[in-house]
Amino acid sequence: DYARWFSRRLEQDLRHTKPDILFVPAAPQLIAYADIRVPIIFMTDATFFQIQGYYDSFKDLAAYNIRQGIALDRSAFQKATHCMLASDWARKSAMLDYGIPENKITVVPFGANLDRIPGADELKKEKNKTCRLLFLGVEWERKGGQIALDTFYQLKRNGFPVQLTIIGCVPPVPVTDPDIEVIPFINRHNNEEAGRLYQIFRQTDFLLLPTRAECAGIVFCEASAFGVPSITTDTGGVSTNVINGVNGFALAPEAGAEAYAQKIREYFSDDAVYRQLSKSSRRKFEEDLNWEHWGKQFQQIAQRIITK
After folding, report:
1. Which of 252, 250, 247, 249 shows the shortest CA–CA distance to 289?
2. I need a labelling partner for 91 at 20 to 30 A (CA). Which of 97, 124, 156, 303 fits?
């Protein structure tokens, strides 16, 4: 099958390149059936075992394909010298479902995919008078778009000053409220459009993303870079990236619009409380949620492997 073909190709390539360490990001098919003498660092944000039925794209697979996928994935994890996983959620599955020992795993969250990281002097100094919410996601249903929309309406009905910007998709329901802006697509590789996204992040008070399924969520790292707290869902790997009271809140999966609205009202209504949450959001980015931190962790793991 295709995985065995990839593994054979990799074996051939390694005969010529002979690296000290092989880094394999989220491609278990490359190493699952390969006979490799080089130490392997395998990186991923989930096991195949745990995403069955979790993401829509992994629902309704044939039983044979599921068994085959799990066997392939487990083999890759077992062949790896060390596993760099994006969340505690993925770590638990690797240990419980694949039998990977804890000392073979390091949890390192991903960083922000931003070409331009704002300096401390570029962050907004105070919250806006009108609370600006940002929903950023391509998949409306999976990212909890309707809950975000209902949260906006809930706040507005209660007389709370609020605006909502939706980026990345078009709601499947009519949206006519003048305080909602819909931007179907932003091309981050276009300087002008990337600059627009940068300014939107700078002006945002909360990232509102009631996601239904999420392995990691790089957008939480990006929001934290701007000192923007995230109001999201405790599902999948989210709780590794969003720490309650530090850079936002991950609400229970069953939480509805009223719970999201209440959390936003609570933290936006007190200037000092919001300012502290914004500062700790940025600090969380600087300490953990950046690629430099990821790179240092990778370097330490590689060094340990090489010097064994």
Report:
1. 247
2. 303
